[in-house]
Design goal:
Elements lengths: L1 H20 L6 H10 L3 E3 L4 H19 L8 E12 L8 E10 L11 E6 L5 E5 L9 H7 L6
Antiparallel strand pairs: 1-2, 2-3, 3-4, 4-5
Length: 153
Protein backbone atom coordinates (compact mmCIF):
# COMPACT_ATOMS: atom_id res chain seq x y z
CA UNK A 1 0.00 0.00 0.00
CA UNK A 2 2.85 2.38 0.77
CA UNK A 3 4.49 1.75 -2.62
CA UNK A 4 1.21 2.52 -4.42
CA UNK A 5 0.78 5.77 -2.51
CA UNK A 6 4.36 6.70 -3.34
CA UNK A 7 3.77 6.19 -7.06
CA UNK A 8 0.70 8.39 -6.96
CA UNK A 9 2.66 11.10 -5.19
CA UNK A 10 5.38 10.99 -7.85
CA UNK A 11 2.78 11.18 -10.63
CA UNK A 12 0.99 14.04 -8.91
CA UNK A 13 4.26 15.88 -8.33
CA UNK A 14 5.20 15.40 -12.00
CA UNK A 15 1.84 16.78 -13.14
CA UNK A 16 2.20 19.81 -10.87
CA UNK A 17 5.78 20.37 -12.05
CA UNK A 18 4.77 20.23 -15.71
CA UNK A 19 1.88 22.60 -15.07
CA UNK A 20 4.05 25.08 -13.17
CA UNK A 21 6.98 24.97 -15.60
CA UNK A 22 4.93 24.83 -18.82
CA UNK A 23 1.48 26.29 -18.01
CA UNK A 24 0.64 27.11 -21.63
CA UNK A 25 1.15 23.52 -22.77
CA UNK A 26 -0.16 21.65 -19.74
CA UNK A 27 -3.49 20.92 -21.40
CA UNK A 28 -2.16 20.76 -24.96
CA UNK A 29 -1.78 17.00 -25.24
CA UNK A 30 -5.51 16.12 -25.20
CA UNK A 31 -6.51 18.85 -27.67
CA UNK A 32 -3.54 18.03 -29.88
CA UNK A 33 -4.54 14.38 -30.13
CA UNK A 34 -8.16 15.38 -30.70
CA UNK A 35 -7.17 17.62 -33.59
CA UNK A 36 -5.11 14.81 -35.09
CA UNK A 37 -8.18 12.56 -34.99
CA UNK A 38 -10.26 15.19 -36.81
CA UNK A 39 -10.57 14.27 -40.47
CA UNK A 40 -9.95 10.57 -39.84
CA UNK A 41 -12.19 8.23 -41.83
CA UNK A 42 -14.06 5.65 -39.75
CA UNK A 43 -16.02 2.70 -41.15
CA UNK A 44 -19.35 2.17 -39.37
CA UNK A 45 -21.86 -0.68 -39.30
CA UNK A 46 -25.18 0.15 -40.94
CA UNK A 47 -28.30 -0.38 -38.82
CA UNK A 48 -31.89 -0.80 -39.93
CA UNK A 49 -32.69 2.58 -38.36
CA UNK A 50 -30.02 4.32 -40.48
CA UNK A 51 -31.11 2.37 -43.56
CA UNK A 52 -34.68 3.60 -43.01
CA UNK A 53 -33.48 7.21 -42.58
CA UNK A 54 -31.55 6.98 -45.86
CA UNK A 55 -34.64 5.64 -47.66
CA UNK A 56 -36.73 8.46 -46.19
CA UNK A 57 -34.24 11.07 -47.40
CA UNK A 58 -34.22 9.55 -50.90
CA UNK A 59 -38.01 9.50 -50.95
CA UNK A 60 -38.62 13.00 -49.56
CA UNK A 61 -35.76 14.85 -51.24
CA UNK A 62 -35.81 13.22 -54.66
CA UNK A 63 -38.25 10.56 -55.74
CA UNK A 64 -41.57 11.87 -54.38
CA UNK A 65 -41.09 15.28 -56.04
CA UNK A 66 -40.57 13.64 -59.44
CA UNK A 67 -43.23 10.92 -59.05
CA UNK A 68 -46.15 12.35 -57.04
CA UNK A 69 -48.34 9.23 -57.47
CA UNK A 70 -45.75 6.79 -56.11
CA UNK A 71 -45.96 5.52 -52.54
CA UNK A 72 -43.16 5.38 -49.95
CA UNK A 73 -43.70 1.65 -49.29
CA UNK A 74 -42.36 0.88 -52.79
CA UNK A 75 -38.84 2.15 -51.94
CA UNK A 76 -36.43 -0.77 -52.24
CA UNK A 77 -33.30 -0.33 -50.17
CA UNK A 78 -30.84 1.02 -49.77
CA UNK A 79 -28.88 -2.20 -50.24
CA UNK A 80 -25.15 -2.93 -50.27
CA UNK A 81 -24.56 0.16 -48.14
CA UNK A 82 -21.14 1.51 -47.22
CA UNK A 83 -21.46 3.72 -44.15
CA UNK A 84 -18.87 5.78 -42.31
CA UNK A 85 -17.83 9.16 -41.06
CA UNK A 86 -15.08 11.72 -41.11
CA UNK A 87 -14.32 12.65 -37.53
CA UNK A 88 -14.78 16.29 -36.66
CA UNK A 89 -13.24 18.25 -33.81
CA UNK A 90 -16.30 17.21 -31.77
CA UNK A 91 -18.99 14.57 -32.24
CA UNK A 92 -21.38 17.30 -33.37
CA UNK A 93 -18.98 18.14 -36.21
CA UNK A 94 -18.58 14.59 -37.52
CA UNK A 95 -19.72 14.20 -41.13
CA UNK A 96 -21.42 10.90 -41.96
CA UNK A 97 -21.56 9.42 -45.45
CA UNK A 98 -23.43 6.50 -46.96
CA UNK A 99 -23.20 4.95 -50.41
CA UNK A 100 -25.61 2.28 -51.64
CA UNK A 101 -28.11 1.10 -54.20
CA UNK A 102 -31.75 2.14 -54.00
CA UNK A 103 -34.76 2.18 -56.27
CA UNK A 104 -38.53 1.97 -56.36
CA UNK A 105 -40.35 -1.30 -57.10
CA UNK A 106 -42.17 -1.10 -60.41
CA UNK A 107 -39.84 1.59 -61.78
CA UNK A 108 -36.82 -0.14 -63.37
CA UNK A 109 -35.25 3.18 -64.37
CA UNK A 110 -34.99 4.17 -60.69
CA UNK A 111 -32.34 1.45 -60.20
CA UNK A 112 -29.95 2.96 -62.77
CA UNK A 113 -26.86 5.07 -62.25
CA UNK A 114 -25.99 4.17 -58.68
CA UNK A 115 -24.51 3.98 -56.27
CA UNK A 116 -26.45 6.70 -54.53
CA UNK A 117 -24.86 9.03 -52.00
CA UNK A 118 -26.10 10.49 -48.69
CA UNK A 119 -24.49 12.84 -46.18
CA UNK A 120 -25.30 13.96 -42.65
CA UNK A 121 -23.53 16.57 -40.53
CA UNK A 122 -23.28 15.91 -36.80
CA UNK A 123 -26.66 15.16 -35.29
CA UNK A 124 -28.59 16.61 -38.24
CA UNK A 125 -30.78 14.87 -40.80
CA UNK A 126 -29.59 12.86 -43.80
CA UNK A 127 -29.29 14.68 -47.08
CA UNK A 128 -29.71 12.75 -50.32
CA UNK A 129 -26.82 13.87 -52.54
CA UNK A 130 -27.87 12.03 -55.69
CA UNK A 131 -26.77 9.08 -57.75
CA UNK A 132 -23.15 8.89 -58.72
CA UNK A 133 -23.45 7.43 -62.21
CA UNK A 134 -21.05 4.67 -61.19
CA UNK A 135 -18.40 6.97 -59.71
CA UNK A 136 -18.98 8.17 -56.12
CA UNK A 137 -16.78 11.25 -56.60
CA UNK A 138 -18.91 13.21 -54.11
CA UNK A 139 -17.64 11.02 -51.25
CA UNK A 140 -14.37 11.95 -49.51
CA UNK A 141 -11.40 9.93 -50.78
CA UNK A 142 -10.47 8.80 -47.27
CA UNK A 143 -13.78 6.93 -46.96
CA UNK A 144 -13.55 5.48 -50.46
CA UNK A 145 -10.13 4.15 -49.52
CA UNK A 146 -11.28 2.30 -46.38
CA UNK A 147 -14.29 0.95 -48.28
CA UNK A 148 -12.05 -0.19 -51.17
CA UNK A 149 -14.15 1.75 -53.69
CA UNK A 150 -12.67 3.47 -56.76
CA UNK A 151 -11.79 7.14 -56.40
CA UNK A 152 -12.47 7.90 -60.07
CA UNK A 153 -10.89 10.75 -61.98
Amino acid sequence: MIKWAGKVSVAAATAVTVTVLFPATAGAAPSSSASQAAGKAVNLKITERIRHQLADAYWKQYYKANHPRAVRTKVDGPKRVYYGKLKGATAGKDVYWAVGSIGVKGDPISYQDGPHVWRKRGHGAWSYRGDSGGCPFKVPKALLKIWHLPECG
